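Action item from last week, closing it out:
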Amino acid sequence: MFNNLMKFDYKRNVKEAVGFYFTYLFFLILISFLIGSFLGILLGEVILHYGFLIGQSIAVIACIVFSFLILKGKGLLNNLLFIIIALLGGAFAVLSGALGGLLPVAYLTTVSKKGEGERSGEEKMDAPEKIPEQQ
């Protein structure tokens, strides 16, 4: 479930995509908390509103970056549908932070690389069978 989390070209099944989602959600929340706390200490005041803005900004940037890293790793940067899905991750992050923004990202991890998978209408070619020698 938590294997290959840093391999953006890896095709995940649903269980692995859920693990990817929760792991990156945890890390984005942790990073947002640390940066917000650090800025609160530097400014000398704790303003919750700034913490939310920082978290949301980090979520938007991270979701878009993760999406395009996945598309680049899978060779799908020329596919308009997947680019729209990647940008939807950023839009969802604007509305609901990393909680919603990582959903399209997790979906993109389940997509096959370009050129992989079965093509419709074609039969799989098996290895040629060895013909027994005749004497």
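Closing note: Residues 118-126 have pLDDT under 50 and may be disordered.
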